[in-house]
Design a protein that fits this description.
The structure is a single chain. This protein is mainly α. The protein folds into 2 domains: 85 residues, Orthogonal Bundle (Rna Polymerase Sigma Factor, Chain: A); 71 residues, Arc Repressor Mutant, subunit A (Orthogonal Bundle). The longest helix is centred in the first third of the chain and has 23 residues. It is flat.
């Protein structure tokens, strides 16, 4: 029985050079991963301005702490953890300042009281259904549905097998469908 060699990160050589302190390699990593960092932050925060703030913080932390990365491990999940942590800190700072969701200069449609009630019920049902998923199911579902990734791409991001991601996505959809059919008439 032969065992397959672990799949190397496509940026492996670049990452090794960055960990060794090569500034050009680090700049290239920051440049190539920046769009994904921003997308992940946007998925975490839901607000483009906050996502941009979190993305900047991630890049600063990446530059300062690249020496902590182990090139023998997948880079995507390591970086995603930094994005999650920075997004959490950004959200906390935003909430402490007491800023409102509506920003100056943006128009919005004001719903009727009936629409607000319906919207509130629908959101509550969706959140309740989403909470029934396991953490891994939520991650895969979020990456595939909102991040535009395939199950295989989500698997690479999370450092899991593609078949596992497909099963998690299938189960998440099945659970959400059943739950929403019960909660929303």
């Amino acid at each position: 029985m032969s065992t397959a060699a672990p799949r190397q990160d496509p940026d492996h050589d670049l990452l090794v050079r960055a960990v060794a302190g090569e500034q050009g390699a680090l700049a290239e990593i920051a440049r190539t991963w920046r769009p994904r960092i921003r997308r992940w932050a946007l998925l975490e925060l839901g607000d483009p301005n906050l996502a941009e703030d979190a993305s900047q913080e991630v890049l600063v932390r990446l530059i300062r702490h690249i020496h902590r990365y182990d090139p023998a491990r997948p880079f995507g999940p390591w970086l995603r953890t930094i994005v999650k942590n920075c997004s959490h800190r950004t959200r906390s700072r935003y909430q402490r300042r007491g800023q409102t969701e509506v920003q100056e200069g943006h128009l919005r449609v004001v719903p009727t009281p009936e629409q607000r009630i319906d919207d509130t019920r629908a959101v509550a049902a969706a959140l309740s259904s989403f909470q029934k998923l396991s953490a891994r199911q939520r991650e895969v579902f979020h990456l595939c549905t909102h991040g535009g990734l395939s199950a295989a791409e989500a698997a690479r991001e999370l450092g899991i097998a593609a078949s596992t991601a497909r099963v998690l996505l299938f189960r998440a959809r099945r659970t959400l469908r059943a739950s929403l059919q019960q909660e929303v008439p």
